[in-house]
Amino acid sequence: MMLLYIRFICTTKVYNWRSYGFNH
């Protein structure tokens, strides 16, 4: 349960970083 939550946050961060990179 905790591991799944951490994995979700990591995936969201990577997705945000990619979107930020593509936008800029």
List keywords for this structure.
single chain, 24 residues, mainly alpha, rod-shaped
Structural class, from helix and strand content?
Answer: mainly alpha
End-to-end span in angstroms? 35 Å
Low confidence ranges: none
Sheet with most strands: none
Total strand segments: 0
Radius of gyration over C-alpha positions, nearest whole angstrom: 11 Å
Order of helices and strands: H
What gross morphology would you assign?
rod-shaped
Percent of residues in helices comes to: over 70%
User: Mean pLDDT, rounded to whole units?
Assistant: 87
Task: Enumerate how many helices there are, as a single number.
Answer: 1
What portion of residues belong to β-strands?
under 5%
Could you characterize what this model shows?
This protein has 24 residues and is mostly helical. Helices cover 92% and strands 0% of the residues. The protein has 1 helix and no strands. The longest helix is centred in the middle third of the chain and has 22 residues, at 2-23. It is rod-shaped, with a radius of gyration of 11 Å. The termini are far apart.
Reconstruct the topology from this structure.
Layout: H1 2-23
Brief overview, please?
With 24 residues, the protein is mostly helical.
